[in-house]
Task: structure prediction
Amino acid sequence: MASLSHFTTACWKNLQGDRMNKQLFFILRALHKSAASEASGISAAGEEAMPDRLITPVADVGEKTRIMTLKEMPGPSTLSNLVEFIWRDGFSRIHEIQMEHRKKFGKIFKSRFGPQLVVSVADRDLVAEVLRAEGVAPQRANMESWKEYRDMIGSSTGLISAEGEDWLKMRSVLRQLIMRPRDVAVFSDDVNKVVDDLIKRVCILRTQEPDGATVHNVNDLFFKYAMEGVAAILYESRLGCLENEIPQETQDYITALHLMFSSFKTTMYAGAIPKWLRPVIPKPWEEFCLSWDGLFKFSRLHVDKRLAEIEAQLERGEDVKGGLLTHLLINKEMTMEEIYANLTEMLLAGVDTTSFTLSWASYLLARHPRVQQQIFMEVKRTLGPGAVATADDVPRLPLIRGLVKETLRLFPVLPGNGRITQDDLVVGGYFIPKGTQLALCHYSTSFEEENFADASDFRPDRWIRKDSTDRVDNFGSIPFGYGIRSCIGKRVAELEMHLALTRLIQKFQICMCPRTADVKAKTHGLLCPAAPIHLQFIDREI
Amino acid sequence: MAFVTALRRLAHVRLREYSWRTAAVTSGAWLTSQRSFTSSSPSLRSDNKVTINFVNRDGEKITVKGSPGDSLLDIVINEDLDFDGFGACEGTLACSTCHLIFDEDTYKSLGPVTDEEMDMLDLAYGLTDTSRLGCQICLTKSLEGVVARVPESVADIRQSKDESS
Ligand code: FES
Result:
């Protein structure tokens, strides 16, 4: 999401703070020499000779196994890349290009976008090696434009846009609040209230269709669910997204978010276009700022509202009780600006990511009625009729967990993640100098037969363990990333998805609508449905 | 509380000069809250400490004591044990660097493994059938004298692989 350009966009959505699709980023970046060079400091020299401080063990290594330089690494030519991305709209097919390049060039390959070099790592074990070698504050990509906007308005960076010590400090505070499964489980009731509204909304929407069953473009519905769910946890308040009349301030936020997303391509350039060119091509930067203005405004509004409530309670001598935001406001581990920025970035990262995954999951269920029936039977058997699941029930619903994992394997919201190497590394036999932009190709590893038998099949039960020593390998599908900079919203997102899907499956048989054919994925910062998904929700007999 | 100490240690050991302004606030922070987000189970104030034997990557045995309720990660941090890279995510189940290996009997006595821990164990380096994540194991009296082996780290591997290749 960030800076780098707006590739950022990608990021934003990911609270993950941590993962992003750098690839795009890079690419964009690369289009602009000046931007690129100020960018990550990845120098073209990186590709030149290996420095002599090279990793020591190499000394004894014979000629055959010598460590190779980046120069020797295979990859598409700069020109063919340009053609692919500029003329053939490669940006929306990044996930497919990843697969093609994997086939053609192997487990590790380099691409050059102008001066920007990106090394793609498209192999489960190599991805594991890279992530396991991480230090205390891994960097995803260059987030300069995000930072520039925040400096301009006098705000702080948040988990997505911050680096180094700033990042570590905030991450350490926030992970203690929303990363442990048991800390997140306490949000079950809040999330379930939002699920209640989701179910009501489904019922209202389908009555508006002639067949009384279809919900048009389910992503629109799941977008509102995800936003309402994240806000219930982050802001401790309800936004009204799932109501008939959406409150104006919430509507304004949605507009800002849509602007960020829809103008992805243009805004991408906001970061890539050198500053001196802005007077000539002002639009991308203006739109970028405009969407951020909207996003920050919303978060200030909600944070300030909660702060005022707390102050009033304190004045009246009452005990202050609350959740995440209350904790942050009372304990002052972060400054107000840091709180605004992090809540802004977390909300941003938690909406589209969750909604796309829910859309794909429902689509896959509709496409595979037998699998859906199998999951329904599990839910029915485990919960009994009418019972509402909480986080405590999820361990007894392995197919629900499998459904989410399998959906994210087939449609990883971030088809690739980025890392800028913090040390010299040897990966796959190549010397990778410090400061190199890596793209970890999660999409292609998710489809490797070696990692997942019948990889293109939708099989939630492949994730089920026979017992606790049964290992369901692997680094092949790590949609939330791994390690210290993995998605901080992972457990929250899982909770929202597990509870929503369980209830939807309990209540409805989800079917394909005749108007929806095969829906493909496209990359738009995130991996999203290339066409609207319309589905039927038919009441189950109870 | 163990966790605070843990944070301080982390700050100290792993981050060096990094100033850790926030550590002190962490525990007890949730006391005002409705929900309990407390990061580690409260250590029972007690004299009945439990002895744990860690075997480090060089095969050396290190014997330390911990309080019931502390996690094995808490103990590594409290005792300032230098296992490089151990516990990177501070016990939030995001990393699997707190991987420990037990003998079979001990493993069985450690209690059930949650799904989330299993998922993270899948990503642990040098996984065995008796592996667990140290941040998920809380000390009890019955673990007196337990032996926990710290597996070879990735860095070791890389080096030996490079040398042998
Ligand atoms: S410390 Fe990261 S999972 Fe235990």
User: Anything to note?
Assistant: Confidence is low (pLDDT under 50) at residues 1-44, 156-165 of chain B.
